[in-house]
Amino acid sequence: MRSGRPLRPCPAIQTDAQALRRLKGYTGRVLRDIERQMDKVAEGPLKVRLQDLVALVNRLLAQKPKDRKTLYSLHEPAVDCISKGKAQKRHEFGTKVTVATTTEGGFVVGMRALRGMGRHQEPQTAA
Prior knowledge:
Oligomer: single chain
Strand order of the largest sheet: 1-2
Strand content: 15-25%
Order of helices and strands: HHEEEE
Structural class: alpha+beta
Shape: flat
Number of strands: 4
Largest sheet: 2 strands, antiparallel
Distance between the termini: 75 Å
């Protein structure tokens, strides 16, 4: 028998937005703790590396879902989302690359990474 109360979702079930908000909260707390303790780190390559990572995490926390320069990976910041258009794999993450080979032997004569070419854009040609 059902009472007159409205049905509520189970509190253990989270939406994606709630989980993302919680992760951003944890990340922000850790980031602020690292920033507070940054002056204790001696000058040198470690401090430069930490400052670079702090800048990346700040960028990650400030980005919106539809931003043009979305950061997908902290360890590989140059990664783009590549739309494939296939049913099983709609998106892949990486960098598009063009490879020029000879027609006879298949020797590689040139390569080029196309940065920012994630969403089926045509490469910019020099006029």
